[in-house]
Amino acid sequence: MPISSIVEGYLERASWIRKMFEEGIRMKQEFGADRVFDFTLGNPIVEPPEAFQEALRQAALHPMPGGHRYMQNAGYPEVREKMAGYVRREMGIPLSLEDVIMTCGSGAALNISLKSLLEPGDEVVVVAPFFPEYPFYIENHAGIQRVAESTEDFDLDLGSLEEVIGGRTKAVILNAPNNPTGRMYSQTRLQELGELLKRKEKVTGHPITLLSDEPYRRLVFDGLAPANAFQAHPNTILAYSFSKDFGLAGERIGFAAISPYHQDRDKLRAAMTFVNRTLGYINAPALFQRTVAQVLDAPVEVEVYRKLRDMFYEGLLAAGLRCFRPQGTFYIFPATPTRDDLAFVRRLLKERILAVPGTGFGRAGYIRLSLCVSPQEIEGALPGLRRVVDEYRVG
Questions:
Q1: Phi, psi torsion values for 123, nearest 5 degrees
Q2: What are phi and psi of 74, to 5 degrees?
Q3: Which of 6, 59, 113, 207 minimizes the number of CB atoms within 10 Å of its CB?
Q4: Domain of 288: which CATH number?
Q5: pLDDT-based confidence at 19, cuts 50/70/90?
Q6: Using one digit for the tens of pLDDT, what is the confidence trace for 202-213?
Q7: Are residues 44 and 64 in the same domain?
Q8: Same domain, residue pair 246 and 273
Q9: In terms of domains, do 261 and 315 share one?
Q10: Distances (CA, A) of 312 to 166, 227, 268
Q11: What string of DSSP letters covers 147-216?
Q12: Is 390 found in the same domain as 350?
């Protein structure tokens, strides 16, 4: 066999997001970009804040001697202190710079966490619908994914979590605001999850780490505030990224923060720093560590996505689709008029509308639509979407 059988299997069930994105490129070449309505990829449309742009210009014009060389694998100490200070202000916990590891985005933060936590065969619980790369991250480190279902409106289902968390559970990955649904969890619900994890820890005899994946933490709507995972459960690691709120998806910059109350805090500090190197990340990009550290309090243009959410949400309801109104992120996740979301997506392609089937997120009967588009693209897609929905009604 020319390639790994494991990787070959991955390719067969690879992310639907990328599959549809590639299909979008092909269709745009065939029909023209203005005649294809591509809602597949969460690729930020808002440019990075001007404060970041200025910090980057200054770094380029006045480079720091040695600024492109290696540093500590966990990142520059002064940058980690600024990140720790940001988390202290946001979440009210006594985080120190030693609790922070600068990473290549939240994906790397999750991977170094899982590599540090898992023995082969250990289990990691995710909540459906979930980000499609989670299964691959877990399998990267010989873990086994277990899926808990959410409620009909995508809130945490503590009963499902209770059933799925078992003796080999080492971690629970929680993503809020959630990709693909835009759901946020209340602090009360998060506290209930924390109590459940503490009860399970007493039974299993080992810590169960809450991996709180929060790349959309500052992309929230309607005056809502994200919940605080650190306050809900002592054994928590935060995975954070500047990809979405600062529009830096291509620069791969973020951090992992270990709760000061985690019972394996000191071991995790050493382990996660070590595997940051041995997984091949080495260290987060030097230039972007220094620039984001200067602009942590720069404003995020949430209104752009909020207006697109309102426009798309109203349009989907008018088309006859049932839909949860996103509370954050830049996605919307309507139910399809058929349980066969793959067939629905294929029918949309005939209208040159590209969506991602909910099956790829562990929830059949839905599609994910990205808000990283123009108002004109939403307007252009809605008539074709209505035609497809009407066909299903008649059928």
A1: -110, 145
A2: -80, -10
A3: 6
A4: 3.40.640.10
A5: confident
A6: 999 999 999 999
A7: no
A8: yes
A9: no
A10: 40, 26, 43
A11: EEEB-TTS-B-HHHHHHH--TTEEEEEEESS-TTT-----HHHHHHHHHHHHHHHHHHSS--EEEEE-TT
A12: yes
Domain finish residue from 270, 293, 316: 293
Identify residue 261 by its one-letter amino acid code: Y
Long-range contacts of 260-266 (CB under 8 A, 24+ apart): 260/93, 260/94, 260/95, 260/96, 260/99, 261/93, 261/230, 261/234, 261/235, 262/207, 262/209, 262/234, 262/235, 262/236, 262/237, 263/207, 263/234, 263/235, 264/207, 264/235, 265/99
CATH of the domain at 323: 3.90.1150.10
Q: Angle at Cα 215 formed by Cα 213 and Cα 220, nearest 5°?
A: 110
Helix crossing, 265-278 with 105-117: angle to 10°? 120
Let me know whether 40 and 57 are in one domain.
no
Give me the pLDDT at residue 11, please: 64
Helix (H) or strand (E) holding 391: helix 375-394
- Is-cis flag, bond preceding 132, omega within 30? no
Token digits of residue 44: 């930020």
Q: Which domain holds residue 43?
A: 5-48+300-394
**How many other CB atoms sit within 10 Å of the CB of residue 36?**
23
Q: Rounded CA gap, 191 and 178, in Å?
A: 18
Domain count, the chain: 2
DSSP state at residue 328: B
- Token pair recorded at residue 251: 């620069």
**DSSP code for 220:** B
Same-domain status, 202 and 151 = yes
Distance of alpha carbon 95 from alpha carbon 258, whole angstroms: 8
- pLDDT over 70 (residue 24): yes
Tens digit of each residue's pLDDT (9 = 90 or more) over 229-258: 999 999 999 999 999 999 999 999 999 999
**DSSP for residue 218:** T
In which residue are the tokens 């499609």 written? Answer: 132
- Whether 355 and 230 map to the same domain: the answer is no
331-332 and 367-370: which strand pairing?
A: antiparallel
286-318 tens-digit pLDDT: 999 999 999 999 999 999 999 999 999 999 999
Using an 8 Å Cβ cutoff, are 245 and 292 in contact? no
Q: What is the pLDDT of residues 45-101, one digit of tens each?
A: 999 999 999 999 999 999 999 999 999 999 999 999 999 999 999 999 999 999 999
Token pair for residue 121? 């065969």
Q: Which of 249, 272, 293 is the last residue of a domain?
A: 293
Residue 43: count other Cβ atoms within 10 Å of its Cβ. 16
